[in-house]
Model the fold of this input.
Amino acid sequence: MPTAVELFLEASEKKSFDKEHRKTLLFNISQYDKKVVEGKQQFSNLELAKTRAAAAKQKSIENLDKYLIEFEANFIKRGGKVIWAVDSEEAVKEALQIMKKAKTKTVVKAKSMATEEIHFNESLEEQGIESIETDLGEYIVQLRKEPPYHIVTPAMHLSKEDVAKTFHEQKQTPLDWTPEQITNFVRQELRLKYSKAEVGVNGANFLIADIGGIAVTENEGNGLMSAAFPKIQIAIVGIEKIIPSLSDLDLFWPLLSTYGTGQGLTAYNTIYTGPKQQGEKDGPDEMYVILLDNGRTNVLAETEQRRALSCIRCGACLNACPVYQTVGGHSYGTTYSGPIGSIITPHFKGMEEFKHLSFASTLCGKCTEVCPVKIDIHRLLLINRKQSVDSKLSTKTENWVWHFWKKAMLKRSKMDKGGAKLKNFMLKQFFKKQWGERRELPQVTNKSFNQIWRERKGIK
Done:
């Protein structure tokens, strides 16, 4: 069976030379870039807003236990129930127990990367429960039996023609339907699902400690519909989503919308603090929040890399990354792709299997530049690399190559030894595979710059 790195290299090469794929992806990202420039205009001092957000998230992560317990206590006060899940298996097991008790046949699901992470839909399908994605982008990739391509924009890799073809094949709609016609069709389909679903499932953009609330940001109203119709509501949320206070949303909501979609504020921003209260007409009869660890405490244990838990999942680093723009989201083989995914995935799923993602970067620093909560992403990628080496996960061949390279580079006399013939032989032996089949290896000249300079100056 191919390893994760072999699958990554194979998929990356395929996507890199797929001109149509790159054209679609770059076009969609360019539209995002234009909107973000407009969205930033709402801030009189953007750097100050980012600094404040970074400090608030840092405070949250450094005091994670305190704020999670505060959230739990406040949520329970209003009749909600909190379940702590160590890993994906436990999260799915707890959710299924709730559903089986309610004799659930249909689940309507709002957009949630945490549920993608734990392979929620697949687990429900195995139990004979229909799980319907209600976000349009998620609905499209679900029809295609694909995972999301992007943290914010699940179908970013598809053109409108690709989407029309998908619906034609899966739903027998006309091949020439416009995006508006397809959207209306999906709206009608989902209305039927909302009305008969026993359980609604969502994630959360933020957990609010001081009121025991979950904040959900969306643009389609599907999240609201998923909570309004079913009698039971389940939110599956990563523990790092905690923020101290309701007042912090005044800062985080505009930053998330600006860097996520280029909007001043998303269309629907909702806070849920528990099930329907006495005298209220709307809301679920039961509401559960499953707090998901699933490797997050592994990141928390790392003094440097824990800063990655400050991520608000805006997707800005993916859109800025030249590697993501070339190989696309599916090549990473993980739920969280791009630069932020390359930091957290090795800790979520194992450094030995996924260390290669931290090397899939140019270290250009663009990801750090665009991060709204000032995560030093490219530096954390370097720290991951160092950790993989310190953990002795490098091959013996690689270790020996770097050993001799270091020896040579530390002393000019050693660097000049051997001549061009030996150096070219060594390059061919050890670097040809890594350099790739489509590029010619550089040729070392007969004389180094140092030797030529000394000859011209008459220095012996």
Observations:
- The radius of gyration is 25 Å.
- The longest strand covers residues 232-238.
